[in-house]
Amino acid sequence: MMDCNDSHALLSGEHLIYAITIPLSTSIILANLVIILGIAWNRQLHNTTNYFFLSLLVADLCTGVALPFIPLMGLNRELSFSSCLVAHVFPNFLFLAFLFNLVMVHYERYVCIVDPLHYNNLWMHRSFPLALLVVWAPPLLYASLPAFGWNNWTGADWSGCCASSQNLTSLSNCSATKTTCCSYRRVFHNAFIYLEVYGLVLPAILTIAGMTGHVLWITRGQLKDICRLHRSVERGSQASDREQRLNLRYTRCLVAVSLTFLACWVPYLIYMHVCIAFLISDTKWSSTTHIVLSCTGIGSMAVVPLVLGLANRQYTEPACKLLQKLRDRWRRRMQGSEEVAV
């Protein structure tokens, strides 16, 4: 971590954060808007299942907006007490809301596969507003705990710019604004960070991984049953072309899920445990390392809903049709201009 008085390091760190996060944040926002508009335009997708996914997309969109501000938590900046709380509490709330929505979407689809007969009788379907309250209210309450006093803030912490003032006028102005050296160590208590990481984030990720693994295991069993029935009907001992295609499709699905987990979740898990390791050891580490790890970890995790959405043709069909219309108009204009030129 850097000192508040090191303005050159602060500026270089901010420039690096914006250089990494702005393109990634723009891509996440645009991709979410495409999928959201696809769900809004297709009336066949107006059901509870897609409403849960729409809530996840909104949370992911907000995470994309807040993405440039999350790595800034690792930099020590001169901010007032209220501005420092907002700069740390609000992005943390959006991240936790995104994670809660992601767990809810996976759970809803998991029950649909594991217990399809009781799927429509789920409490989430009977009381959709309550389900939305569950995925948005607890993250807001937990993220707001530092604003209610669970922080490392003391009365002597706002001495950042006041200590460097040389005259009475600048000293009085600084005292009026009460600018402080804002850092995540003063906003978040160590117990708060441990509880969030090992009580909320890590169990949520393991729950998602467990549900995904169980679904793949069930799918594998169903595939074996289908192949067994197919052989009994065909009265053959060797695998037919249809069985081979089914096995190949399952293999592709397994590879896609594994690669998605490795590309989207592993970078964030590495970033999370590296941060905890440095927090426990209480050692200073390079701001560049923190910036790269945080941008890569948070950005890769925010891509998960986009993978789920872009893989469904129903969500992307309106955007594809719009692009096709624009392409056809462009071709007609080009052909017309060529005919006029001839």
From TrEMBL:
Its main location: membrane. It is a multi-pass membrane protein. It is found in: Cell membrane. Keywords: Cell membrane, G-protein coupled receptor, Membrane, Receptor, Transducer, Transmembrane, Transmembrane helix. It holds the Pfam family 7tm_1. GO terms for molecular function: G protein-coupled receptor activity. Residues 31-308 form the G-protein coupled receptors family 1 profile domain. It comes from the Eukaryota. GO terms for cellular component: plasma membrane. The keyword Cell membrane applies. The chain crosses the membrane at residues 16-39, 51-73, 85-107, 128-150, 197-218, 253-279, 291-311. This is G protein-coupled bile acid receptor 1. It comes from Plectropomus leopardus. The lineage of its organism: Eukaryota, Metazoa, Chordata, Craniata, Vertebrata. The gene is gpbar1.
